User: Fold these one by one.
Assistant:
Number 1:
Amino acid sequence: MSAAVLQEDFINRLREHFDVLSAYVLAQLNAGEELTINVAAEESLFVRFNSNRVRQNTDVEQIGISLRLQSNRRTVEKSRSLGGNMDADRLALMHLLAQCRDEVAVLPLDPNQVPIENNGTSSEEFRGALLAAQDVVAAVVAPAAGCDLAGLYASGIVIRGNCNSKGQRHWFATETFFLDYSIYKGPQAAKGCYAGARWSAVEWASNLARTRTLLALLAKPQQDVKPGAYRTYLAPRAFSDLLGMLGWGALSASAWKQGRSPFKKLAENEARLSPLLSIDENFALGLTPRFNDLGEVSATRLPLIEKGELKTLLVSSRTAKEYGLMANGASEGEGPRAMDVRAGTLAEQDVLQALGTGLYLSNLHYLNWSDPVSARVTGMTRYACFWVEEGEIVGPIRDLRWDESLYSALGSKLMALTSHAEIDPAVDTYYRRALGGSRTPGALIDDFSFTL
Amino acid sequence: MPDTVIPHEQALHHALQFSDWAAIRYSSETATHRAVRNDKPESNESSLEEGAMCEVLVDGHFGYAATADLSLSGLQRAFDRAITTTRATSQHKVHSFTPGQRPRTTGVYRSARRRDLDALSVVEITDCLMAASRAMSLSDRLVNRSARAMLVQTQIDYFSSNGSETRQSFDMLDITLAATAAEGLESQTRSWSRTGQFGSEAFDRAAFRENAERVAREALDLLAADNCPSGHMDLVLMPDQMMLQIHESIGHPLELDRILGDERNYAGWSFVKQEDFGRLQYGSSLMNVAFDPGRAHELASYDFDDGGNRATREMLIENGVLRRGLGSLESQVRSGLPGVANFRSASWNRAPIDRMANINLEPGTSSLDELIAQVEHGVLMRTNRSWSIDDYRNKFQFGCEHGQLIENGVLGKLVRNPNYRGVTVDFWNRLAGVGSAAETHGTSFCGKGEPSQIIRVGHASPPCLFRDVDVFGGQS
């Protein structure tokens, strides 16, 4: 039996399982009870590489289900893993529902409760053509022979489903892989990521060749760059790293209202960003379902920042209820799920010339707010980063610490965005394989501050 | 705690037909999250994660398959998947292992506690959180008053084909109170947390109220405070910031899997080289650091790691000299270095990797007043707020919620947005004083690994004095 058939079985099997189980549980509700059910499932293969060899391989099959019971203006949510056996899972869910009822009877009123509604129905399934488990390692390591390669290959099916007692029903299944990797020459390294739905040996070889070219540039003499302010080019992946901070409370309406948003000045029209910068939530990228955990469906395109001006924060229904705002399909965490940064006009071949003398950064590392009120972020340079003089790469740098306000880096210091943009797929694997990602161009920033 | 008995003997018998060694790690974890914000319920959620990791040794390579189907047929299918994949990948294994990396062990561990966590009712917890939220209500400028509690009960049972059988049960608490004061465009947050292996006796109503009032008052005070000054000065770090300093600049760089390069593509490598053990003067002679899995109530206490290795206290750094790394039996045989029992996984669906557990800085002889008295010009910082360090664990920058200037040996004016930066070995060699009274802290959210895992760690430390550190404040 081929791997493709087994994987297709998992989608069909899960869908039927979810349909039967959810119908059964919903039929048990008493008058005055409303219920939302979410399922997150995956059938994944993880292979971890070190030195172009296998460190660990793990197969994971998991189904997680959650019940959110709303009754008498109280809310409780309980979730659990399921084994996939219908009788046992039915019993487990009835036990979970009973626990929800016990709790909801003694909890205080939830004044910010969002009434359960029918937000419609959707169904999307994206089939792929993945490597069979036994073929993965040879396919990865053979083209990388001679490379010191470290990284993670992850593949398989990821499923999200949602339904509620008002008749709402959403289903999303996708079959994808990613190979998030880096290659090394001693302590120097270059980073790459090959992701998609259909493994292609030609595409993998081409992706690896590009990363090898970057690694070869690191053979130039190492440059000792002192802390200071330098014109800096952030390649798309590095710019994606920087903009990832917008998901740490900056664009969250609840964080703004609770005094925690680094973009408070932007939200209150006390500051604006560069007119070069426009950011949307763009679900047309196809990286993640449009529905959230309440089954609310976001607009396909939601402008967040238009020419430097905040158009809207991400507002969940709960935040909207609490603060009298308009919800816009955001998840409860109110972070971007499909961030799309509009490309600029700087052609890729002109980047070094436009940079002139300064730093070319391919990746950033370990970002955090260092002064939230000023939207100041600190982080490190990582992987292939170079000192450039008069439009020519002189050599790699030692890692530098930087500390810069987003009001500056995305404001008056932002000189240009590139005309090419790259998809940065989510490769997070905490608890389960993530969905989502972003599309970002490269960014040329003046006087970026390096501190250590 | 569910009373699940899995058919481990039959499943292991099945696996041994096609593998050289096999094990099952059953794990069940109930985590309850309750939160109150501004005197209203914010969330009441709980999760049950229950499943088994089936592990095999095939042709010298360990491989894994995870399933939540705990029937015999479910476990057998998981073993079949593990064996098939592991046989294919073993031709490219990074090292040829033996069952010697999985010693036979038996035993039982149970968290120190006086009363089980589930002795607490929903009403008791909610009332406690609500009272804390109300106690923070000192001013309209306190725009966010949050009280959260996470109660976790975990059972981990491990069975192997060479006779290991360990059963460990954990009761854990993670409580956080936080107050945010805001005025105009400025805001400041102050928090208090209690984290560790406790029973319900630790749900202390008086402590909730007392700390709630304190953090609210301090958030308001910070709103009116000046920014921390910039410059090189002496630095006293309190235990709730030492926790982070130890975690990032001792714990992670000493993990042997990082030193061996397994983690290079994700969290990063380490500046520590294999030849540094026994030689590197990591810090001043006042620096003594232990791996201590036996400290009662610390968050990452346990008797056995997830490879069945019995956990014992070991010194990592003695008198400032690096002695031992944080590496499991697999990393020890790969590197030829001594390690510890720290082969740990986040849950049933992740394979174990080298993780720090309880990493503690041993107490010295100075009182806090004596440390402060040694400072002519400096700052005392409390409670971590911001953290960032490079992928070799060298260049760090950390920020705290609360700072106080020290002038001529006297603690004085409050300052906000205190930050400091440095380079690991240089920084630890600036250690000039170690307090005598340790506090125990920890976090439930240390991330690492591919696939990624969140794990619990504990860090006990006294206050410490560092000389001539690069300190700076905020821009606002």
Note: The longest strand of chain B covers residues 40-58.
Number 2:
Amino acid sequence: MSVSVAERPAETEPARHLAWRGWLLDRAPFLVACLMLLVVVAIYGALQKGVFTLDEINLDTAAAMTLILAATGQTIVLIRGGIDLSIGGVISLGTVIAATQFSDDPLTVVMWSALILAIGFAVGALNGLLISALKLQPFLVTLASWSILNGIAMLILPTDGGGVPGWWIGFSYNQILGLASPVWMLIGLIIFWYWFRATRLGITIQATGSNEKSAFLSGVSIARINVVTYGLSGLFAAAAALYLTTQTGAGSPTIGKDYILPSVAAAVIGGVSLFGGRGHLLGTVIGALILTLIGNLVFVLRVSSYWQPVMSGVILLVAVLASSLAEKTARGQEQ
Amino acid sequence: MDLIEVSGLTKRYGGIVALSEAQFSAWAGEVHALVGENGAGKSTFIQILSGAVHPDEGKLQLEGQPYSPINPDAAQALGVAAVFQELSLIPDLAVEQNIWFRREPRTALLTVDGKALRRKTLELFDKYRFPPLDPARELRRLTLAERQLVEIAKGLAKDPRILILDEATSALPAKEAEWLLALTRQIAAEGRLVIFISHRMGEVRAIADRLTIFRNGSTVASHVATAVSDDEIVTQMIGRPLVRLYPERKATATERIALKVDDLRSGSRLTGASFELREGEVLGVGGLQGHGQRELFQSLFGASRATGSIELWGKPTQIANPRHALIGRDGIALVPEDRPGQGLLLTKSVRENLTLSVIRRFTDKGFLSRGREAALVKEMVDFLRIKAGTPEQLAGTLSGGNQQKVIFGKMLLTEARVLLLYDPTRGVDVGTKGEIFQLMRDLAARGYAILFYSSDLPELVHVPDRVLVLRSGRVAATLGAGRVSEEAILRAAVLDEAA
């Protein structure tokens, strides 16, 4: 018979101290993102008058909303441990359909909007199905569907154009209690997130991203989760497309690609792990705001607009560095 | 009537037959032990029972009804729950979320009811008298032993009619293991069936009513536990009488010092360890769990930050990360604690696992030489008797003992001559254990220097030349030949005044 020598040592002071530091380290990427947002806002506020007003908040949120919506879907996919490049195609296709089909009749607009959202979900669900059924890489499957959708968008509307009703364009200027509709959308989105992440579906998506094999052994149907996850991503991309037409007033078969990598960048800046299992929409929203405000910053600094991608890249690097340092430190302490 | 009855069960993975016409039957209210060497088919068998794997052939019956669960959910719905050896837990979820994963209590808004979740968790802990465990902690912050407790809680939370425990005690400290054994008896007494897999004969003896022996994927025999001797069981397990578990211990240590460690400190657990390891020596490391053994191995391998001085073959060395530790004949190689987590890439082939960290040995002016690689891989597979269909078989499909052998092979191919073995026989069957001990002595005779930690006291008594006993992160005693006994190790581990 074998006897194991073992006894659990009592929880010691240092261990509790480490637990507290662990809590902080876990949130380090998010906190760094908040800090970066503060810095960007501070510089912007110092150079420009009227930054700290309700108007400015309304305007900036309106400007960031397309990216926020696209990045919300991306965040769900990233937490699942995947990636969705097809959102570029969904956004392009969505704006093109809207710009060619919307008429002044609100009923037509509602019907086509519903169809666009349904197409977004269906495309995503198909992505999820292909990824699970054929055991293909999400990167490749969604890259292919991006290309396909992009082509279809070109066939429908070869160049930027078309149009949407005037009342549709006015969407983001509607205000309630001094806050414009995009701000209310954002509030709604965050409430949705707090609800969603506490549902079984939300937890299961996170769990599958955290450890797919364990999730499977616990009875999760990986195929079903993939269909829902990528479906939601497509749905949010379609919503981003609809919102985008309220800003541009037209359709564009190429505009979607501008949101593919930024949606990933916004999530990563906000602390969402590319390896799945960890992330929060609040971080993604902050990331999207940072990326949007950099555009404003470039404008008020009166430098070439080519500095915008440079600054975005630097911020992305800082964010990635912060999360990797935090992870290493945390791991070093757990050992 | 039998609660579960299985006959003609067959499962193949590529060219390897994991199960061949296996039979099994057990009734409600008993603890039924499943014993056999690694690779005997036990793991495949319970994976089939729990719905994670589908058999190629065979008849399964649950209470006289055909039983073929399409997935783990279906098995659970029929009251079959498994506590897996390679854990089924989610690292980013809290303990309580893991225990009730996908069966969480919900509010009217369909969100998880946190209060009810906590209450149910504490009730579960209370009902089965669990060792202390914080329900809110994230799983990845837990030790291996704590994770095992969560896995057990997850199984119990399903209130199963058939509870399968796969090596559930191997990761547990002695007190917790005893608790689990008592719990197992209690569950059986409630009229449920516990299928209990363990390599520790003492445990099987202590709790099993009956036992079924597997060998090479087939059922060898079933016995009433009291009607069969240890020798008979071991003989049937390995197909021949076991001559001896522990190899002959010839002193092969030279005067040359391979590894000299002075005042090594890391974190809060390792607080200044000093010792010397000589060429040709097997040096055991013992002590109560959590007294710095893991930190010692991790710091020597460069996986944890540490201060203090380390001399390798007489030269002062800075080991900043595992890559430094690995380099060349003067390096250090580690067999880590957590096989799937740290040692092995389960989705890579045996060949890739063996050669991944030593790829430069097979390159010629920057090009990979497949021939040299194949030759060395074959040599290692033969030398260690790794049971794989081909070197291209995925490591994840090997049995536990064979996975451990692959890790040994990986370590040996680095050519490092200082080897750190952290609990290398955990969850390994008797036959493979014997092979591993013999291998350690053979390597020592060839001039390797081996630092060997084991959670199993008799191993420390019978295998190493000397034993260091750690207490509170320091070397409390060094027990030389003739002075090593279970009692002496425990005494030094527990008492301030070491003998």
Note: The two ends of chain B are 57 Å apart (CA to CA).
Number 3:
Amino acid sequence: MDLQPSSKSSSPQSLKEVVIRFAGDSGDGMQLTGTEFTRAAALAGNDIATFPDFPAEIRAPAGTLAGVSGFQLHFASHSIFTPGDAPDVIVAMNAAALKANLNDLKEGGILIVNEGSFTKANLKKAGYEANPLEDGSLDGRRLIAIDMNQLVAKALDETELSPKEVARCKNFWALGLMYWLYSREPAKQIDWIQAKFKRKPELAKANILAFKAGYAYGDATELFQETFEVKSADMPQGRYRRVMGNNALAMGFVAAANKADLPLFLGSYPITPASDILHDLARYKRFGVTTFQAEDEIAAMGAAIGAAYGGALAMATTSGPGLALKGEAMGLAMILELPVVVVNVQRAGPSTGMPTKTEQSDFLQAMYGRNGDCPVAVLAAKSPADCFDTAIEASRIAIKYRCPVIVLSDGYIANGAEPWRMPKPENIPEIDPGFRTDPEGYMPYARNPDTLARDWVRPGTPGLQHRVGGLEKDQLTGDVSYDPENHETMVRLREEKIQNIANDVTEAQVEGAQEGDLLVVGWGGTYGALKQGVAAHLAQGNKVGHLHLRWLSPLPRGLEDIFKRYKKVLVCELNRGQVWRHLRAEYLVPAEKYTKVQGLPFMVSEIKEAIDAHLAK
Amino acid sequence: MTNVAKIKEPAEQAPIPFTRKDMKTENDVRWCPGCGDYAILASIQKTMPTLGVAKEDLVFISGIGCSSRFPYYMNTYGMHSIHGRAPTFATGLKVSRPELSIWMVTGDGDGFSIGGNHMIHLLRRNVDINVLLFNNEIYGLTKGQYSPTSEVGKVAKSTPYGSVDHPVNPMAIAMGAEASFMARVADTDAALMTDIFQKAHEHKGTAFIEILQNCIVFNDGAFVQVSDKKQRNANQVLLEHGKPLIYDDGKKGIALNTDTMKPYIVDLEANPEKTSDLLVHDEKDATGMLCHVYAWMRHPEMPIPVGVFRALQRPSYDEAVNAQREAIIAKEGRGTLEELLNDGDVWDVD
């Protein structure tokens, strides 16, 4: 069977943007369907933003609300910055998926459901007393009910697969239907399935059959009155790829090590949602990467510090609970004054919290989660693609200032995807490790007068033998010192060194109104929602600015002046006001806060309304 | 970017010879007068110049505790790290810099209480470093609490009515982690210490050395049976590869009852013909059987085994990690940034 773009007579209706959510049991393969449809949109030149949302359980009980896994994709013919607030289309593979997602659907939105899974048992598991497909409760939506189970079974009739294996192909059937509905070219997808199941030709064949059957079904039936297309977005010239935050971090660190001509060493203990960085770097061995899966979070941090002591670009990856365990070792790295980067992909806390759900609630832990006065550098990535630049920036600062640097990412940008205009490798600046090899006049804790960084000396360097440790040390010789004045000097020097980083990073810049009624302040992965929320107000002529902080420790220069240019300051973050508290303490600015702690990112509409409310006050 | 942070090729230059004096730092040694640590420090300083390793390639890494002050007294590279975690820093350093000779100093609290987990994983990974466990069966630096190796009933500051918890057996734990090199020596036996340190250095993989060390202030005489030179011969049996277990100046030996798998003492004065019954030490015994027997030989029922329990070759972690990466690079070619970025679905916008 050859697939041609829609054979229906009318040409597809052109849309500027679409938000689709795929939802099903965690075993239904919805993450794959979503990822693949995203790939198709990206390759077709759309701007994209995605939001996968899945339970922590690998396979929660089938058919239950707890087991529902979702993947939201926003694709557009113009620039977009978030995965979209409300879906235009929901694809629900069973009753629980419908129930968990229905309320989010836009008014008049399209609802495509697999009615084959709306059995009595599944309805009961989802908590439905009557079948919503039959009782009129879905009126007002464009309901398209299809028995995908039966159609997939029919399409795979001739294969040797077991009924269970057949059922597992229905995500490709749904993908085929969506390809048809949005006028996507199917050939590349078929190639992809071939390649993916190279070692299992029978599964490749079955999934291709299912995919084609879904596509053909749209074309042949009268269920759909029209098809749609979203034209390619007008994006700046360059080479692009689709990238997720964790993936971009992994590549960024490889790039940084390359530019510093240092081996890259990762110490890590698996933890959601950071593990993918370990997985990626473990694949990158041929780029000179060493990964060490440690026995625990502490060992991962210790090994990274050991590698840094040996002269590697060393890093550790973790999430909130892991950062808590790393605290003591990070304090050692700080007092040893060795370069080491710690990535914290934040998740909802406290304690184990909600591992697969996003939050920004580790800011205060990153700042203060160690004994003693122990400042370290902290910066945050604002989007999946920005993770690449963030990794390089973190590495550059760690190496230059010989200090631990914490990168704050979060579950939302770690797993979310967007198109990334890649830099040319030759345009990424070199990083100079500046190892000391000259024994003449060497004192382990003498400092560079500009940066206040001490020398990085690798064991094995003749004539520079010295001892380092966690005990307070003399400000020059590095010998153990209990001298009161010396301790005060050292505590201040270490603090000043971190503050000096502000001389080395971009000054704070406001987007939108440069002065006026309200300044929206955010950091990290909320960038897209804040940007679009502010943009909506700018379109109405409101004088609203948006300041998004990349550097949190030290804070960038010029903030005080920026705050003065607005009547009100509103800090928006996914915690109970951690950066809000910090800014108020640092600048005595009467900032207000808008917060959300639901394990979910901000919606643009929420930001828009929060700004409304504060403008009206 | 390079693969390892190597500073020089090992064969580039022969190490400049040095003496034990060169190993001393200007720091005053601050252990209590009469502490067993002094003798261990002297033996280490004496051994280092004999290893053929350049002075700058020696690294001492410790955790926290009395013994962990050790790096401050060695004129080498050194790190006094945090409590219990020395194996983690040593592992990261050795993997990155396999050409360095790394010596880890720890105690019974540091190594088998707070750092027990790391110790197990260090040993099972077989990272090529040398571990000096200063076992004095007491917490010294915190001023005299019982330790995880203290005997049941230990009256100490935190156990005025005696401790009730059962101690760990470091050698048995090392065996459980399949340590590839295990040795034991008393802190007063300078000759045996030097011999063991040299063998530990030659061994590829983790060399685990339990030093029975006397804490003169909080647990004096804990190992008097073997540390007192007058009693030593009668109370310890020196393990020598390929030789029968004989002690007490040839008067006694150890044999194994192969029905019960238990060791027993043979009186060789009364029964010289039974020499042929004695257990013959095999440091390469891959079954772990012999080490298990030695680990549970306790005074006063049995003499305390000292010397090298085990020296078995198996691949070291640092070697394996680096070999794997180099093999991948050799096979697939060294990756460039261009390849890294383009490894995915890319598209061009003109």
Note: The two ends of chain B are 32 Å apart (CA to CA).
Number 4:
Amino acid sequence: MKKKSVSQSTNRQAAIQFQNVAKSYTLKHQKPTLVGTLFGLESRERFQALRGISLTISQGEKVGIIGPNGSGKTTLLKIAAGIATPDSGKVVVKGKVVSLIELEAGFHPELTGEENIFLNGLIIGMAKEEIEQNFTQIVQFSGLKKFIDSPLYTYSSGMSLRLGFSIAVHSNPDILLLDEAIAVGDQEFREKSLKKINSFFKQGKTIVSVSHWLDYLKNNCTRIIWLEQGKVVEDGGIEVIELYKKDSEKA
Amino acid sequence: MVKQWQNWLDFTLALTSREIKGRYKHAALGFLWIVANPLLQMLVIGLVFQFIPGFRTENYFLYLFLGLLPWSFFTTSFSKATPLFVYERYLIKKAAFPRESLVISLILSNLLHLSIGLLLVLPFTGFSVNAVLLAAAVSWLFFFTAGISLLFSSLNVKFRDVDFFTKALLPLWFYTTPIIYSPEILPHQLQQLLVLNPMTLIIQLFRAAFGVPETFSFGQSLLIPLSLTLVVVVLGLLVFKKEEQYFDDWM
């Protein structure tokens, strides 16, 4: 991937910049094998996930990405997060990206909550000292103080999600990527989570959310990008949501 | 730059300790299992093969153990590493972390086992060891294992049958390496062929480090296995570098 840090930014401090980005996947009907490839039995069908996307998200912008399933929303986030690499085009991301898709990444059931905080923190790109400094807050926010010495397999799924969320929000990201599951856990924790995310909104962090929860986006975003079949249909203010709704009703 | 290296190291070591702790945390006698395997193999193979004419060398059990120890390091690392990226797909799909750390940490955790095994050898050689030769042997073994593991694990993402190939290859490789026999019992032409196998020289080096009688001269034949190792390492790095960007696509 052609990723580089921009220091001489000409435009108003771009946080994420896509230039004519295209991404396709090979459709797989079964496990890919070497034998299959040698004998030409592999599928060559391609699925075009993104078709020449160009957009610039400036620092501090709150962007919502909407579109039907399969329109390329998740691929866009994955490329911005550096998980996937585009086939062509240029991507520049400035600052530390943390996505809330990564909850629970690398949790090991045999290790304690504490050990898992360090492991997961390192996986999402925190430095060791950073985790040490934030450790107390992470535990406090998760509300799992009593269980932090217990191995993770004793946690309920809600508990480990809470731990994962807590680590992610304390990783001090410059750019926050939010996928569908914005709120996890019980009612109380959900409120706490939304409050925390709102505080990110206020701190002027760049936030990109992908969601079908249109009301949430309407209240929290200043810009909406509507994707369909890997292309940008509309890019504008929250009025795009109304256009999208009308279009969906028609169909 | 230094900071980045530090973070990479912290991350790789955290994964290594996850690997070690996860494996032994709840196993009774925990670390005893580490050396139990080559020890038992040595006993069984030693008991049987010492009665077969030609196999028995001076100090046969020590000779065997010093062959089995590096071999079991190599074979566990290589066979576990090959499908590793596919097994860790949930991690790879979720976060952008240095992928090679998965393979390196697996090998590092096995390096701990190897060190413990080597410590056990010391009393039997009267605590005499050539530290320089041993360091050379361990580093050579480490780089060769890392190179071939990176190569095969990267290929296995796109071609899932590579794992079957590895599993079929290893038993054959065991018998083409002088572990349970001495190269001397082979005809001259076959002895020459053994040089094409870097594991031959690596194991001979381990034996030489502990002063175990070894008449096989490897003075002039180092060039071929060393260059083969270099080829494997460079190829492994190149293939990994090229493929890692697209791991997510194939998961």
Note: The longest strand of chain A covers residues 14-26.
